Amino acid sequence: MLAAVVWRLGAGPFVDGVRAVDGRALLAASAIGLVTTVCCAWRWTIVARGLGVRLSLPPAVAACYRSVFLNLVLPGGVAGDVHRGVTHGRDVNDVGRALRAVAWERTAGQVVQAVLTLCVLLVLPSPVRSSMPLVAAGLLAAVVVVAAVDRARAHGAHWARARNAVLSDIRAGLLHRDALPPVVLASFVVVAGHVVTFLIAARTAGVGAPLVRLLPLALLALLAMVLPSVAGWGPREGATAWVFASAGLGADRGAATAVAYGVLVLAAALPGALVLVAGSLPIVVRAKGATNA
């Protein structure tokens, strides 16, 4: 997809996006990244506590920084989350439950993002506004189908065990009265932080459209970043170029905005590299000690 965007638009928007990033944008993105990372860590501790896994906020923040950095530099976009789940599981001697806590924490964030995106796209003008009633109807139909399948297979032993395990996790980690409000709040702040970072990238790339016009475009671009990729490169540029062109803002400005966003997000995640290096130092020291012995 990235190659297709370069073929259609040339390298100019990519160069413009990188060159447009300045110190103020980097500072703002880093501050927003700190807020969103702390909120992700807070959400993680809440879900983990609901599932009966101990996790305090400071190590959760460090692990989330490391996770975001690994997600941005490794293919797939989930390697960092798997790493923090496994590492936390080894610390508490329960890898399975720790991985489930990470999975449900990420799922909660994606659900809140999807709901916010759907609401904004239904209200504000965007290139896909005319299709949103059909999308909403399709989502409702999908829920009905899933419920029907669940009811049809309710008597199967394996299905019943898996279903009960999932429902138990959701009730304890997400829907509990002590978990649901903070999880939703943290997820909302995280999505808002990503949107604000995208808007900063748009302004940095020279897009002067009103914020009300840019908001649905930002949410559409963020939704495309969920697709498997390396740091969002490819789907992000393709989707942003398309929605900007459809909105009359120019595909080249869209691609430049996406590139600037990618640079800002990577810069904000660099503390995760320090956490990764710091975590590997004890292993190196122990290995050298064993060799000397």
Write a short abstract of this structure.
The chain is mainly α and 293 residues long. The chain has helices spanning 2-9, 12-20, 23-50, 57-73, 79-92, 95-123, 132-152, 157-173, 180-204, 211-224, 235-246, 251-268, 271-292.
Descriptors for this entry?
single chain, 293 residues, mainly alpha, globular
- Write the H/E string, N to C: HHHHHHHHHHHHH
Report mean pLDDT, rounded to a whole number. 86
Cα end-to-end separation? 52 Å
Query: How many helical elements?
Result: 13
Sheet with the most strands, sense and barrel status: none
Quaternary state of the chains = single chain
What does this structure look like?
It is a single chain. The chain has 293 residues and is mainly α. The chain has one domain. Helices cover 80% and strands 0% of the residues. It has helices spanning 2-9, 12-20, 23-50, 57-73, 79-92, 95-123, 132-152, 157-173, 180-204, 211-224, 235-246, 251-268, 271-292. Helix 11 (235-246) packs across helix 12. The radius of gyration is 21 Å and the shape is globular.
How is this fold's topology laid out?
Blueprint: H1 2-9, H2 12-20, H3 23-50, H4 57-73, H5 79-92, H6 95-123, H7 132-152, H8 157-173, H9 180-204, H10 211-224, H11 235-246, H12 251-268, H13 271-292
